[in-house]
Design brief:
By secondary structure, the protein is α/β, with parallel strands linked by helices. Helix content is 43%, strand content 13%. It is built from 28 helices and 21 strands. The strands form six sheets. A seven-stranded parallel β-sheet has the order 1-5-7-8-9-10-11. The protein has a five-stranded parallel β-sheet with strand order 16-18-19-20-21. The protein is globular, with a radius of gyration of 26 Å. The protein starts with 24 loop residues before the first helix and ends with a helix.
Amino acid sequence: MTIKSADAAARTTVYGYPRQGPDRELKKAIEGYWKGRVTADALKATAAGLRADNWRQLAEAGLHEVPTGDFSYYDHVLDATVMVGAIPERHRAAVEADALDGHFAMARGTQEVAPLEMTKWFDTNYHYLVPELGPDTVFTADSARQVAELAEARALGLSARPVLVGPVTYLLLAKPAPGVAADFEPLSLLDRLLPVYAEVLADLRAAGAEWVQLDEPALVQDRTPAELDAAARAYQGLGALTERPKLLVASYFDRLGDALPVLAKAPVEGLALDFTESAAANLDALAAVGGLPGKRLVAGVVDGRNIWVNDLEKSLSTLGTLLGLADRVDVSASCSLLHVPLDASTEHDIEPQIRRWLAFARQKTDEIVTLAKGLSHGTDAIAAELSANRADLASRADSPITHDPAVRARAAAVTDADARRSQPYAERSAAQRAHLGLPLLPTTTIGSFPQTGELRSARADLRTGRIGTPEYEERIRAEIREVIAFQEKTGLDVLVHGEAERNDMVQYFAEQLTGCLATRHGWVQSYGTRYVRPPVLAGDISRPEPMTVRWTTYAQSLTDRPVKGMLTGPVTMLAWSFVRDDQPLAETARQVALALRDEVEDLETAGTSVIQVDEPALRETLPLRADEREAYLAWATEAFRLSTGGVRPDTQIHTHMCYAEFGDIVRAIDDLDADVISLEAARSHMQIARELAAHGYPREAGPGVYDIHSPRVPGNEEAAELLRTGLEAIPAERLWVNPDCGLKTRGWPETRASLENLVAAARTVREELSAS
């Protein structure tokens, strides 16, 4: 497409930027603060320095307007909870005593007080802290942090736009507080919340904000008429304020749908829409409402969630279409760049030509600026950039990495029978009980044990050549011996080898599969100080050789108790990687499933009787719109069954899911046909157990009784009480006892104490059952 110079220069911005710094300085400072090695002042100074560096980089790249308020010590939804004063009663004393420590107490809990529940941010792998609200909630405005960060950016001479979680999304993400009736609707508090937002907006206007962005991603989901009416009321009310900045209402992750005419009519000055996900739907909807005359449109044409270089000509075509639909069209990424790594140019281990296929946050910023230049001054002004972009896209499309005929032929030959176990569950269950001989309420863990500093150092020493492979592997064997010995001594029934050799539950496998690229510095925040390096699924996937058999069989040689083989499932491999965008997700999932099927069969042949294929991302990847879910769940559950469908009836297949809302996919969980499922349940007080029971779930389940995302150690009676609650929904012969998730991020002292209490709780409840 050829674009001539536009009447007015297009401006550029982003909604948010990676928080951690180039070497994860924020993570290191926060964890140092938790351990007492870093003072509060030093932590705050590190955070301020990272914010300033981000803003300078964005401005130097050519962005006209930088975001403020997107930076967080832990989570931006938790920051919104503080901003509106919705502090849970159990945390008020801590927050009043010390705001920073109280903030972390809400996120992580203390030995005395449980944290807020944590779950996935829409269909991403980012986790947010769930607000707890009730009919007695009193909101109070606290805009100090938002005002201070705006002042920091303005002091650097920058045009800055504060970014806040919008009031409708905030309430739709919230849950009834503990003790509040489950049918309480947090959205009923909207009229109570809006005056607080009005006060915050007035404070920001007084501090010099020309624009404020209110993020409303919840409006891209299916919404009831009452919820759409609430959105209309919210923005009619906020738009009618006189002491406020201009308002930019942002949506992302999908099409805005029925909410678009609501927001188009509202007295706000701008809308931000995602033109990468469902771009055609948003374009059609904009045209249907007559565009946005007199309003600012921020067009998210650069993918903020994936790492592939932008198709500049395609994006320019979209932007050219939008020019006639709004008073002003600005160029941006589709969502916050929080969801991608910082800088692809630092990935020196990736071949330079392949590296040119990648765009991390800094490269995406450059793409935004290039597109705005082309939109403003015509395509002739960016001819060199367009030529280089065409070459990069062609290089990727023609690469042998992206097309392996053998992999494609195998995937095409899959039949329905390949994705089904040979016997129904009732027959398998009897065979497994006879084979494994487990007690009532069997105890196990989810897979990983603490990754100590010594383990991480050994991995780094191997990578840098300070030690050789034999010495490294002896360290891994020693760790496995310790983990097995501890589990035997503690009394766990089904053991794990602890995953000492694994850097990450996805990256470890991706590094051994063809078609995958690993990064050295591609860190992305998952939650709090937990950062991961998602692999890049760049081409067709296959497994050249066994990946886990060696260490699993070594662990099994140390004990007579069953040791689980541990694998990451195909949907989670996709969800927690940067997946290729040049073929349907279902096809990539099938390729990964076939690679895992080979691994499952090799584990079984080596004598592994219990194999866990984790799918924590099954719910996370659920499309935001209901009309797309059936097709997704069909290929997602088929991929899992394809991974596990070839085993004998007496081999027990487990799966695991955590930190998402599972109630609306219980049927899909059933369709996985796993013999045992373990799920997060401690923070939600066994909600998933009740949901499984309501569905009539017929298999075994282990709703977690130990919240591993908090440093607190649950007592014996606390775990026993959760078990008793679980037994109200799941019969004892089908109930397992386990933590919520893997123990990789925990320390050994709390792990030992918590698992000892977990086993003691299981024994206590077994005795109660035998006595009744």
